[in-house]
Amino acid sequence: MSTALSYDKIAVRLHWCIAILIIGLLAGGLLMGYIPNDNTSLRFAVYNWHKTLGLLVLVLTLFRLYWRLTHKPPAQVDGVKAWEEKIAGLVHAIFYGFMIVMPLVGWAIISTSRFPSRLMNMFPLPKLPMLSGAENAKQLHQVFEKTHEVLAYLAIALIVLHVGAAIKHQLGGKPILARMIPAMQVKTNKDEV
Ligand code: HEM
Ligand code: HEM
Q: Which residues of the chain fall short of a pLDDT of 50?
């Protein structure tokens, strides 16, 4: 049985890198549509960086999933109710799904677009082979754009729930936040001595 109080270093670093990327991509994604159409070079650069960082989330998540399946999470905190644990587990599973599906849907958007995309604003980004040259590309493009948008709003709602639950538990004396911020765990332990 795991006796660790926090997630291991790699799991913690992956969580925070991906969390920052996703929050940035959600905010940036919603804002980038406001860049004036006539400022094509800025628009192109910002969209290309959105796509690049979005694909980075996909790569990091695949490694994170491998890490999660091969490393035990910390033992559950005392006082967390069974239903709370179940809902948290469900939200985490949805997040893993989101972190894979959202970049793939983004990739599908650009695979059905007339415009080219560049990784890091430099290297041509290949289109998904099953979508490039699709007959109904225009309709598919609209469906993927709508799906990307709806998933973004669902994710924002779940992130608010996720962060709220972590803070609520921490303030209520159940050190859940400390599981992802090991430095808080040390403080909690010292405080108890
Ligand atoms: C976890 C990763 C990602 C997140 C959180 C994210 C988030 C967002 C958000 C919030 C929007 C604005 C949606 C709207 O208002 O319609 C957006 C738009 C867009 N995203 Fe992403 N995105 C991600 C990954 C990607 C990837 C990997 C690509 C392409 C390779 C991509 C391509 C696009 C494009 C082309 C748009 C503009 C769509 C439009 O004009 O309607 N995204 N993204
Ligand atoms: C400021 C924002 C965030 C805070 C404060 C936060 C906090 C936490 C905490 C405390 C845990 C451990 C929960 C537990 O062990 O019961 C956790 C786990 C997790 N968080 Fe976050 N999180 C944040 C953002 C995000 C974002 C944006 C995502 C992705 C959409 C995310 C995905 C996950 C996942 C998948 C887990 C489960 C880890 C595992 O067991 O494999 N988090 N988070």
A: 1, 188-190, 192-193
Which residue reads 């490393």 in tokens?
Answer: 71
Four-residue CA torsion sign, 50, 93, 101, 153: negative
40-45 CB contacts, 8 Å cutoff, 24+ apart: 44/121, 45/121
CA atoms within 13 A on the CB side of 87: 10
pLDDT digits (tens, 9 = 90+) for 120-131: 999 999 999 999
Q: What is the dihedral of CA 60, 65, 69, 75, to 10 degrees?
A: 90
DSSP state of 139: H
Indicate which residue's Cα is closest to atom 7 of ligand 1: 26
pTM for the structure as a whole = 0.94
Output the pLDDT for position 92: 98
Ligand 1, atom nearest to 103 Cα: 27
Q: Quick one: which atom of ligand 2 is closest to the CA of 77?
A: 16
